[in-house]
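Q: I'm writing up a methods section and want to include an example of the input and output format. Could you take the sequence below and give the corresponding predicted structure tokens, formatted cleanly so I can copy it straight into the document?
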Amino acid sequence: MSIPLATLEDNKKNVYELTCAAIKRAKQIAITGDEELEDKSNKITSISLDQVLCEKTQYKVEN
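A: Here is the clean output for your methods example:
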């Protein structure tokens, strides 16, 4: 799996918020694991970006 660049380019959301959400999701995946991580070709960063961009994972911005 690679970083979903087409989805990233088409995205209209706040890039800073997406980046923060992807970083937090990557930390969660590193600690707890994920089904997609079992395939050795997948990287944590790619998985977290895909999940945030494709809205498989929800996030909330707190002030």
